[in-house]
Automatic annotation (TrEMBL):
Membrane topology, record value: Multi-pass membrane protein
Record keywords, A-Z: Cytochrome c-type biogenesis, Membrane, Transmembrane, Transmembrane helix
UniProt similarity note: Belongs to the DsbD family.
Any one Gene Ontology cellular component term annotated for this protein: membrane
PANTHER family: CYTOCHROME C-TYPE BIOGENESIS PROTEIN HI_1454-RELATED
Subcellular location: Membrane
The organism of origin for this protein: Yoonia tamlensis
Source domain of life: Bacteria
Regions that span the bilayer: 12-40, 61-84, 96-116, 137-166, 178-199, 219-241
Domain Cytochrome C biogenesis protein transmembrane, first and last residues per copy: 16-229
Gene Ontology biological process terms, A to Z: cytochrome complex assembly
InterPro entries: Cyt_c_assmbl_TM_dom, Cytochrome_c-biogenesis_DsbD
Name of the protein in question: Cytochrome c-type biogenesis protein
Amino acid sequence: MLEATTILDAAILPAMFVALAAGILSFLSPCVLPVVPPYLAYMGGVSVSDLEQQSAARRRVFVTAVFFVLGLSTIFLLLGLAFSTMGRALLQFQDYFSTVAGIVVMVLGAHFVGVYRIGFLDREMRLDAGDKGGSAFGAYLLGLAFAFGWTPCLGPILGAILSLAASEASIGRGTALLAVYAFGLGIPFLLVAAFFPRLKGVMGWMKRHMAQIERTSGLLLWTVGLMMLTGQFAAMSYWLLETFPALAAIG
């Protein structure tokens, strides 16, 4: 019962904000953003030009996109459950674990900034879900395959959120962080499916500035790692409570 009533409180708000930002940055990563239009078109059984010109096609694509997001969210929630369970099992070593997790996240952040490159994190393993375009079930399968196949490419950002989930040492709170991450990654898919013609220019601008976006992601990760290493997440929680007393009523 205690687990269910302490999932959301002011102490977890900074981590949830980071998880949301990480999901959005994952969507903007070089291995996701460029393939969004063809993926959406394939899932809906239409062409990219149909997605751009026909509102009926966009409605069909939006429905399949919902199931696609449910598929990838399933995998991320399972990962959150697994890592938070591991963190709870290692509760007696929590201080050491937080230190190691902070260092790992800083290393991943430096990879994104470009200080060095970790080879296997630049590769992606695409799983073939078969010819499933045009159906809700097929879109769900593609979501599962997407989450599995792009995990190496999303590794630096996803690794940071999994480290946060494990450091929570609470199954409910850790899984909630991955749910927020999946929300940050999945909602942009739905927005593109619904408003592709209007967002085409924005997506083009993002592709042209991919290097700057990647460095921003790395800087965010490095900062998160430093905060985990120095215990500043707890300090930020206290600051939130002092600045916004109403947050004390949450949870």
